[in-house]
C-alpha cells in the first residue's frame, strides 16, 4: 500500500508544472501602451529581480478636413525592479521613457517629437505559466517636443498603461 501511495505522489509531482510564472532570463513578445499612450509591439526581458521592456509602434492619423493622412511612430522603454514576487504575480517600481514622432497639426506641416518621462509602479499577473498581463500607473511628464525643449515639463498626467507578453522558455 505504501508503494502505491509513493508512486502516485511521484507521478502527481512529475506531471505538475515546475513553475507558475515569472521565469528568470526569459524573453517575452507582446504589445503594450505606456502611460502617455505611446503604444506598439513590444519585447520584454525578465531577469528575475527586474524586467526591461522595449516597444515600437506605428499608426496612421487622419486629421480630417481634407488634410493628408499622416504617420505616427512610437518608441519606448521601461524598467521595473520587482520589490515583491509571488508564484503568479510581481510588484515592480521603476518607470519608462516614451518617444512619439507625430505630425504637427498646427498647420505648419512637419513633425514634432514628444518625449515622456514616466516614473511608475507595475503589477504583473501571470494568467498562464508563460503569459503575463501587466498594469502600470504613475505620472507622465512631457519633457520635450520639436517646437520647444523644456526640461521642466510641459504637463503631467496621472494615468495608467497595460501590456500583455508571451514568454518563451
Structure explained in plain terms:
The chain has one helix at 2-15; strands spanning 26-33, 39-46, 50-61, 70-85, 89-103, 111-128, 131-144, 156-168. With 169 residues, the chain is mainly beta. The chain has one domain: Porin (Beta Barrel), CATH 2.40.160. It has an 8-stranded antiparallel β-barrel. The longest helix has 14 residues, at 2-15.
What is the number of helices?
1
**Helix and strand succession?**
HEEEEEEEE
What do the pLDDT scores average to?
Answer: 80
CATH architecture: Beta Barrel
Q: Major β-sheet, in short?
A: 8 strands, antiparallel, barrel
Strand order of the largest sheet: 1-2-3-4-5-6-7-8
The CATH topology assignment is Porin
- Beta fraction of the residues? over 45%
Features:
single chain; mainly beta; Porin; eight-stranded antiparallel β-barrel
Summarize the structure.
It is built from one helix and eight strands. It has 169 residues and is mainly beta. The protein has a single domain (2-168), classed as Porin (Beta Barrel).
Secondary-structure map with pairings?
Blueprint: H1 2-15, E1 26-33, E2 39-46, E3 50-61, E4 70-85, E5 89-103, E6 111-128, E7 131-144, E8 156-168
Antiparallel strand pairs: 1-2, 1-8, 2-3, 3-4, 4-5, 5-6, 6-7, 7-8
Amino acid at each position: 500500500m505504501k508503494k502505491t501511495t509513493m508512486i502516485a505522489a511521484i507521478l502527481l509531482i512529475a506531471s505538475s508544472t515546475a513553475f507558475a510564472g515569472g521565469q528568470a532570463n526569459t524573453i517575452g513578445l507582446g504589445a503594450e501602451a505606456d502611460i502617455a499612450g505611446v503604444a506598439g509591439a513590444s519585447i520584454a526581458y525578465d531577469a528575475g529581480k527586474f524586467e526591461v521592456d522595449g516597444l515600437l509602434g506605428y499608426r496612421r492619423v487622419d486629421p480630417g478636413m481634407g488634410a493628408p493622412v499622416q504617420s505616427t511612430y512610437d518608441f519606448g522603454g521601461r524598467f521595473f525592479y520587482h520589490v515583491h514576487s509571488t508564484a503568479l504575480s510581481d510588484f515592480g517600481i521603476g518607470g519608462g521613457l516614451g518617444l512619439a514622432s507625430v505630425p504637427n497639426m498646427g498647420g505648419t506641416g512637419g513633425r514634432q517629437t514628444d518625449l515622456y518621462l514616466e516614473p511608475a509602479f507595475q503589477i504583473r499577473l501571470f494568467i498562464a505559466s508563460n503569459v503575463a498581463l501587466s498594469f502600470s500607473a504613475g505620472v507622465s511628464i512631457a519633457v520635450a517636443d520639436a517646437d520647444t525643449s523644456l526640461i521642466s515639463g510641459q504637463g503631467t498626467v496621472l494615468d495608467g498603461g497595460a501590456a500583455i507578453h508571451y514568454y518563451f522558455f
